[in-house]
């Protein structure tokens, strides 16, 4: 029997170090990259997760914590949100941001690997993931872990960049990356860190392939929604009822 795939130390350390380095400018560059639209996309993602008041929710690859905060506002004081990331620098920003929120939100921040989550089976009522699936080194394994920790019938919504099928929109996306995002990153000493986005997009599975991978991971339902002309996409997956 072939052993399950695991992240190599080299790949994991490289990606972890990258996100630690970009943490101080991560939110500002997201605004540049999306012209501020990422805030709307994240609201859509939380809505599609079907998180409800009192739920226990997961925000996987939580970064600086904005999706986790939106989940916290939705579940309220009777619920609980776990924001998980393997970047300690991103988590520190998320913690500081959470401390400034009034009223306090029910969020617990945890440093952990998306390929080996420290939670029991069937634990979460809903989950979100923003810009994380493209950056894990084993997409099938991460989807399997997400499936494992969701309760039967629970839904997860996964937001990430997408390659538009329309050549004109694809050209616009590349122009934004090359003439806005990378120069801004360069000005902050992070050219190499943000130059990786285009190559990562070229390797990232498209909507139909994401659906196939989600079904292979065990999800009973999987739908991919292209948004903003296909520049972004949200994969919505639901675990089978027991």
UniProtKB/TrEMBL annotation:
Keywords: Methyltransferase, S-adenosyl-L-methionine, Transferase. PROSITE patterns: SAM_MT_UBIE (PS51608), UBIE_1 (PS01183). GO terms for biological process: methylation. Its EC number is 2.1.1.329. It comes from the Bacteria. Belongs to the class I-like SAM-binding methyltransferase superfamily. MenG/UbiE family. This is 2-phytyl-1,4-naphtoquinone methyltransferase. It comes from Phormidium pseudopriestleyi FRX01. The gene is ubiE.
